[in-house]
Amino acid sequence: MIVATERSITEQAIDVLRSNRRRTKDGLTYTLPSADSYPYQWLWDSCFHAIALAASEPDVARSEIRALLSRQLPSGLLPHMIYWERVNGVYDIPWGYPETSSITQPPFIAEAVMRVYKATGDQAYLSETYPAILNYFLYLLQDRDPRGNHLIGIINPDESGEDDSPRFDKPLDLPARHTLPENFARRLMLVDHHRNCNFDAPFCTKKVFWVKDVPFNAVMIRNLKVLAEIAGILGENKEMENLLAHSSEIADAMRARMEEEGIWYSTMGESYEKIRVKSWAIFAPMYAGLLSKEEAEFLIENYLNNADEFATPFGVPTVPKSEKSYDPDGFWRGPVWMASNWVLYHAFSDYGYTDEAEKIRTDSLALLEKSGFRERFNPETGEGLGAHQFTWGALVLDMK
Ligand code: GLC
User: Fold this and answer.
1) Ligand 1 atom 4 nearest Cα
2) For ligand 1, is residue 393 a contact (CB within 6 Å)?
3) Ligand 1 pocket residue status of 33, Cβ below 6 Å
4) Which end of the chain is more exposed for a tag (fewer CB within 10 A), N or C?
5) Cβ(42) to ligand 1 under 6 A?
6) What is the DSSP string of 73-118?
7) What is the rounded CA–CA span in Å between residue 319 and residue 167?
8) Is the dihedral of CA 87, 88, 93, 98 positive or negative?
9) What are the sequence ranges of the domains in the chain?
10) Is any ligand 1 atom within 6 A of the Cβ of residue 265?
11) Which 8-state DSSP code applies to residue 26?
12) What's the CA gap between 154 and 367, in Å, rounded?
């Protein structure tokens, strides 16, 4: 039965990716996360699309990344949104750039390119994409860590990809319970502020919002290592060493600044004040291999498998029940999302938690089977919420 179910989910995943595929005027293809709700290109979404398609449709995966790189900003930043075709009134946000946003999203792009290389052996594609990707990581290392403290800062919650996560309530000066419009208004102020700062993130924008986020930095570490591997393949040995050194410096800084009694918290401001809000992000250090076996075990036993925290009928909620902000229907405030599931699947697999990883995979399949390719899912009922024909369910193709 499971086999039949899986086959149809695989087919549906490919179908959603195909029907959301669009072409730019330059003939590149890219994929809308959801044609109805998200009619543009998004950075981490496109990395997910490329990862899901690397093995079966490598040309499409290649193009998805090329489209992203073609709109890199002069600073090296890869914008989190590209408005290939404007849809009136949809995400009409005054970013300060005509065709793109002016902020970024978690840097999964080295992993995405590596997946294409692993599937095809196409070294020319690595050579083609490496300079722009290196430039992006150098931007993050310089402009988002201007004082050389080895943690990468984000200047807007949207840069985490988890727009309304309660990890950002305190830095936004919002209570644990508030409305979506209240949240959006604060984030819009940050957009205005960044534009008024003339996009000077390291010295101007960061005065208002400056968060060292756990998942962003874990993704950075893992992707710096992958980029180092790419540099090695291309014979760029000095850069390879440099990238590896940065990844271990960030790892050390995360441990020094974020850990408290076994939990790693995001920090805010120049004082590195810990934001003591639990979310699925407490497991994210495992994605970068940062925890000892004992530290991982502590989280799995006390949090992952604890019904008062993260153990729910449909898997790992983005925010645990014990938090004041927990809302099983909220936006990054409780529901299960396929992106966090996919990160956790790999994090748990890497640590040898094969049962936990397999459970994430089967829970993900069960949610897609029950509710279709929705944006997010109520962890208690499995009900689908938000956007329809949403692509992230295709990440199950990469849970193996
Ligand atoms: C929402 C999500 C963000 C995603 C975008 C497009 O803004 O919070 O992570 O990239 O939708 O899917």
Assistant:
1) 161
2) no
3) yes
4) N
5) yes
6) -TTS---SEE-SS--TTSS----SSSSB-S------HHHHHHHHHH
7) 9
8) positive
9) 9-398
10) no
11) T
12) 31
CA nearest ligand 1 atom 11, residue: 38
Q: Which atom of ligand 1 is nearest to the CA of 34?
A: 12
SS3 label, residue 306: coil
The single-letter code of the amino acid at 14 is I
Query: Ligand 1: distance of its center to the CA of 259 in Å?
Result: 28
Phi and psi at 372, nearest 5°, equal 85, -175
9-398: CATH topology is Glycosyltransferase (1.50.10)
d(Cα 180, Cα 172) in Å, to the nearest integer?
A: 13
Helix, strand, coil % (nearest 5) of the chain? 50, 10, 40
CA of 385 to the centre of ligand 1 (A): 14
Ligand 1 centroid to 105 CA: how many Å? 9
Q: Ligand 1 pocket, 392 CB below 6 A?
A: no
Measure Cα distances from 28 to 41, 60, 94, 262 in Å.
12, 9, 26, 46
Ligand 1 within 6 A of CB of 38: yes
Please give the distance, rounded to the nearest whole angstrom, from the Cα atom of residue 239 to the centre of ligand 1: 32
Q: Model-level pTM? A: 0.98
Gyration radius (Cα) of the chain, Å: 20
User: Of 45, 180, 318, 391, which is best to mutate to test ligand 1, by the most ligand atoms within 8 angstroms of its C-beta?
Assistant: 45
pLDDT in 10s for each residue of the chain, 400 residues: 455 666 699 999 999 999 999 999 999 999 999 999 999 999 999 999 999 999 999 999 999 999 999 999 999 999 999 999 999 999 999 999 999 999 999 999 999 999 999 999 999 999 999 999 999 999 999 999 999 999 999 999 999 999 999 999 999 999 999 999 999 999 999 999 999 999 999 999 999 999 999 999 999 999 999 999 999 999 999 999 999 999 999 999 999 999 999 999 999 999 999 999 999 999 999 999 999 999 999 999 999 999 999 999 999 999 999 999 999 999 999 999 999 999 999 999 999 999 999 999 999 999 999 999 999 999 999 999 999 999 999 999 999 9
